[in-house]
Structure formats: structure tokens, C-alpha cells
């Protein structure tokens, strides 16, 4: 049996955060039930054809805001998976949660539904900033829920943070990092604000209502995060991800290492047998069981470049021997020119079997990645 990871997309939110271009909608509460039915059917259809081929190692319910669903929904989704698939007893089973949609009973429901990891979207420790970026919760909501999550017995918690937010100061971000590190979540992700088309921030930017941080300031905040988190015992194992020993997010590592995963739900993508499959992004079609998938059979070149730009996100880098194992060709036979150039200008480091980004390479990772694509 092959290892499999499952991603489940819940495309509902209470309101759209001003920076967010994820596939999610507000105000669709009346469709929760129809969506769940379509989702369970999709899971069932896949399992009917494939269940004995796989053992499920990780499940990630993301969105959107999965925690917006009423109590009972997550249990049904979990039971469906457990009844249809072989599930590893050491599974990592994550749910994303917005502190504005949680309560003690919901957290207990997650626990009863086999979930063992909660990923909390906080973003900033200042109510002023939370309001400014369109979050629906306060820092007090976060703290109350964090306490409840621990009370219920969750021992694996991630907190998402953002930097380079409009009006955010270096002191704000330092306060955020210090306060969160003090709470000792097992995992912390921190991403810089990226202006995405179609978001409220993009409109505001176009109208000249706010300006982006300079690259220098953005990098300063990034290094502040690395310093504070490392001092607090967090290991940076990926460009934007930090964890306590052995608490890496196994699910995300599956993406970065290009292992197989199946995505269920609106717009969810899968990587199965070197095919990239993307579900329909049309909500009406999805709930009416017209899931017209886009299927891309990956060319060798796509596989090589994905292996490199996803793998280089991890601080350990990529193993040259893994490249050979996966593709039966030496990495230097494909990318000699690029690798030598980046090593020479200090963006890539070669150490034994590994190639990894240097500090400068992380700052310029987009430049590096684009040359491999
Ligand atoms: S809660 Fe998450 S998915 Fe929903 S709008 Fe905000 S950032 Fe996007």
C-alpha cells in the first residue's frame, strides 16, 4: 500500500479578510449541507476505486474556515474517511480554525472526530491590526480558544502570523512573536503580506490608500522572526515555518517532497500518479455533482522543476540522490548551468548529498525558483 495524504477544502468564511485570495465565500451558510453532501460523495467515489491501494498518513481540513461549520459536520467527514480508508494509527490530522468561529464544544467535537492538530489563524497580536486586515476575531478570542484547545488536550497546535501589514511596526511584530512564543505552540508559520489581485487590499493599493513595505523592512521583520523564534527553541525547517523538535507539519512536507495527495472539495488539487488534478472551482457545479476536473499529466521537466522549487523551500534542501531515485537521471545532467551559477553567486549551498538555499538565497528565492521552472 502506498502512503496518501488527504486535503479537504471548506470554502466558507464569515467575512473575507482584506488580503485573502483563497477560494472561499462569505454568506453561503444555506449551502453548508449541500456542500457536505457533495464532499462526502466525492470522498466515497475515490475510495470505492482506490481505498486498498493506500494508507492515509495525514489529513488536513483547510479552507476557507473549516471551523465555521456547525458541530457534527467535521465528525461526519472524519467518520467517512475512517470508514472507507486504511488510516495509519499515527496519523497527523489537522484542522484550520479561525478564533472567531470556535467555542469549547466545537474544540471538543474536533477531538472526538480524531483530529489531533489545530492550526489557528491569528496573524497579529494587536486588535488594531486585526481590524485593519479584516479579521473577525480579537486577541482575547484567540487567547480564550488557545486555552480551551489545551484544556481539551490538543498537544499539537500551529499559530499563523503575518508581517509587513499596513501600519504594523517592528515593535508590533516583536510583541506578536514574543507573546506567541511564550504560549509555546508546537508550530508557528509566518508569512509576509502579499498583495493579491481581487482582494480589498489590492483595490486600496490601486487607489493609493496604502503602500507596501519596502523589501528592506520586510526582510528585517523576517529576520526578526527567525531570531526570536530560534531563541525560543523553534527550528526553522522551511522558509516560513518553525517548530519545536519533531513537530514539523507532516502534511505540508508531503507537498514539498512531492508525495501523493488527494484533494477533496471545491478547487482542491491532487497529485496522483504524476497527474495534477484540480477540482472545479464553480461552486454551483460542485454541489450539483458536476465536478469537472482539470487533469494535467506532468511532463518530466515539470516534475524536475517542482522537485527543486518545492524541495528548496525546506531548510535542509533537496537530496541529489533523491532526484536520481525519483527520475533516474542525475540532477547535474538537467540543471548543471543553473546549479553552478547559484553556487557561485552564493544563493545555493552544496553539502554532501544536499543542495540548499543560503540566507541570501532565501531572500532571493523567487529568483532561484524561477530559473528552475
Ligand atoms: S479566514 Fe482565512 S480563508 Fe477566510 S478570508 Fe480570512 S484568510 Fe481567507
Q: How many individual β-strands?
A: 17
Q: Low-confidence parts, pLDDT < 50 over ≥5 residues?
A: none
Which structural class best describes the helix and strand composition? Answer: alpha/beta
Largest sheet: 9 strands, mixed
CATH class call of the largest domain:
Alpha Beta
CATH superfamily of the largest domain: Aldolase class I
Rg of Cα set: 21 Å
The overall average pLDDT, rounded, is 97
Characterization of this structure:
This protein is α/β, with parallel strands linked by helices and about 375 residues long. The protein is built from 15 helices and 17 strands. The strands form 4 sheets. The chain has a 9-stranded mixed beta sheet with strand order 9-10-8-7-6-5-4-1-11, with helices on both faces. The longest helix is centred in the first third of the chain and has 19 residues, at about 30-50. Strand 5, helix 3 and strand 6 (about 115-125) form a beta-alpha-beta unit. The protein has helices at about 30-50, 75-85, 105-110, 125-130, 140-150, 170-185, 200-205, 215-230, 250-255, 285, 300-310, 320-325, 330-345, 360-365, 365-370; strands at about 1-10, 10-15, 25, 55-65, 85-95, 115-125, 155-165, 185-190, 235-240, 240-245, 260-265, 270, 275-280, 295, 320, 350, 355. It is about 40% helix and about 25% strand. The chain has 2 domains: about 1-255, Aldolase class I (TIM Barrel), CATH 3.20.20.70; about 300-373, Orthogonal Bundle (Arc Repressor Mutant, subunit A), CATH 1.10.10. The structure holds iron/sulfur cluster (SF4). Iron/sulfur cluster binds near residues 16 and 63.
Amino acid at each position: 500500500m502506498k502512503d496518501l495524504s488527504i486535503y479537504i477544502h471548506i470554502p466558507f468564511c464569515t467575512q473575507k479578510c482584506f488580503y485573502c485570495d483563497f477560494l472561499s465565500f462569505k454568506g453561503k451558510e444555506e449551502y453548508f449541507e449541500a456542500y457536505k453532501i457533495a464532499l462526502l460523495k466525492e470522498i466515497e467515489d475515490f475510495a470505492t476505486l482506490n481505498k486498498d491501494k493506500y494508507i492515509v498518513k495525514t489529513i488536513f481540513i483547510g479552507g476557507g474556515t473549516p471551523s465555521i461549520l456547525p458541530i457534527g459536520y467535521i465528525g461526519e467527514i472524519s467518520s467517512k474517511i475512517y470508514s472507507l480508508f486504511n488510516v495509519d494509527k499515527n496519523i497527523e490530522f489537522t484542522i484550520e480554525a479561525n478564533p472567531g468561529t470556535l467555542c469549547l464544544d466545537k474544540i471538543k467535537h474536533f477531538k472526538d472526530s480524531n483530529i489531533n492538530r489545530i492550526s489557528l489563524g491569528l496573524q497579529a497580536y494587536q486588535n488594531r491590526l486585526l481590524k485593519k486586515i479584516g479579521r473577525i476575531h480579537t486577541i482575547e478570542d484567540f487567547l480564550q480558544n488557545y486555552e480551551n484547545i489545551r484544556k481539551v488536550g490538543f498537544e499539537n497546535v500551529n499559530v499563523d502570523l503575518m508581517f509587513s501589514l499596513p501600519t504594523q511596526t517592528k515593535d508590533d511584530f516583536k510583541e506578536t512573536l514574543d507573546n506567541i512564543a511564550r504560549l509555546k505552540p508546537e508550530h508557528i508559520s509566518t508569512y509576509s503580506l502579499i498583495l493579491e489581485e481581487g482582494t480589498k487590499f489590492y483595490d486600496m493599493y490601486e487607489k493609493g490608500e496604502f503602500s507596501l513595505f519596502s523589501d528592506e523592512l520586510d526582510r528585517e521583520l523576517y529576520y526578526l522572526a527567525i531570531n526570536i523564534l530560534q531563541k525560543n527553541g523553534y527550528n526553522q525547517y522551511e522558509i516560513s515555518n518553525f517548530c519545536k523538535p519533531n513537530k514539523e507539519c507532516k502534511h505540508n512536507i508531503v507537498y514539498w517532497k512531492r508525495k501523493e495527495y488527494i484533494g477533496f472539495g471545491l478547487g482542491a488539487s491532487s497529485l496522483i500518479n504524476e497527474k495534477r488534478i484540480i477540482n472545479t472551482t464553480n461552486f454551483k457545479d460542485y454541489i450539483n455533482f458536476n465536478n469537472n476536473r482539470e487533469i494535467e499529466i506532468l511532463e518530466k521537466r515539470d516534475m524536475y522543476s517542482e522537485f527543486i522549487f518545492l524541495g528548496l523551500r525546506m531548510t535542509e534542501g533537496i537530496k541529489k540522490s533523491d532526484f536520481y531515485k525519483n527520475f533516474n537521471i542525475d540532477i547535474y545532467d538537467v540543471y548543471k548551468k543553473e546549479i553552478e551559477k547559484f553556487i557561485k553567486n552564493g544563493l545555493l549551498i552544496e553539502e554532501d548529498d544536499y543542495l540548499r538555499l543560503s540566507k541570501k538565497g532565501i531572500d532571493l528565492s523567487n529568483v532561484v525558483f524561477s530559473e528552475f521552472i
